[in-house]
Every structure is written in structure tokens, then in C-alpha cells.
Amino acid sequence: MARNILPVLLAASASLVGATPPGIPSTSVAETQLEALTVAAAGSGSDYDRDLFPHWISQGDSCDTRDLVLVRDGTNVETGSGCSIDSGSWYSEYDGATWTQASDLDIDHMVPLANAWRSGASEWTTDEREAFANDLDIPQLIAVTDNVNQQKSDSGPEEWVPPLTSYHCTYGKMWVNVKYTYGLSVTQAEKSALEGLLDTC
Fold first, then answer.
1. What's the sign of the alpha-carbon dihedral 90, 166, 8, 82?
2. For the residues 14-38, what does the mean pLDDT come to?
3. How many distinct structural domains can be found in the chain?
């Protein structure tokens, strides 16, 4: 699963202003994907454990998934030995804040692991949950202000959306795409909230 992609990410990071996760669909595609999602009541979270989703796995070159997202989402990011993030700046799309210390950033799972568990991931294998928690190919991972991510916790869009209203459209499209890609269900309240977010596009 490890991939030697750090040089590519380092080259790309110099031109980025904010985080731009891959695979964000157009509004029309997101609307189609949303309509295809199964609407169902949330499952039980009583047996959820974050450790059931192995995350920040090795991605090669001594880097883990968190490191690669920080490099991808930052500007002028420099790494040291062991893929340590030595310097850079990061614009948090959720709240519009800019940071120069990687420790001020969390890597948000767009669809939180606990939410995924309640909407279908409880039936997955550990390997499938690991792939979900470290997916760099869809808009599932994004570097954002740590305390803002902590406010989000495992909430769906019916309970929490980014403080920066200009990001609501993109947030909705990303959430829908992740759920669609992994065949996860949505509650009726969640679907209604996503329709509202897409209406802002």
C-alpha cells in the first residue's frame, strides 16, 4: 500500500493556497451521487472503537498518511529526516485561519470514522476500514485547524458544518462523494442537510 509520492507532493505544495483534496465532484455529479445513497437510520455506535480503523499508516519514504496530507495541503512545506514536517504554512478551509506549525493542524476525516461505523463500516473488514481511514485518492482527508476539527468530532452535516460559510458547497460535495464511494448510508436528516449545502453551490 505504501507509495513513493512525497517528491510529487512537495513539488505541488509550493503552488497551493489552501487544501484541495483530490476527487471533489462537480455540483451536478454530487447531486446525482446524493440521490443514489441509501437512506437509513444510523446503526448502533456502542461497539465502535477508533482502533478498528488503523490510520496514519506508512506511505513510504518514512512518511505516514498524516505527513502526506500536511505536505499536500500546505504551502512551501519542507520535510526533514524521518519525514518530519520542518516548516510550511497551512490555510484551514473550515475557518479561514493560517498556521505555520503543523502541530496546530488536525487531519480531518471528512466522514468521521464513528459516522462511517454507524452507516455501514461496522460490516467491513479491518483492511477495508484501514483503506477508508487513509484514502488519499478521494476528498476524505483534509488539514484543518485542530480545535475546529475537535468541535466537529463525529458529527454529520445535520449537526455541524464549517464556520466559513463560503466552504459549505465544497464541504457538501466532499461528504457526498466519500459516502458514495464507500457505499455508506445517510440518515434522512443528513440527506436534507446535504441538499441544503449543495443548494449553496
1. positive
2. 87
3. 1
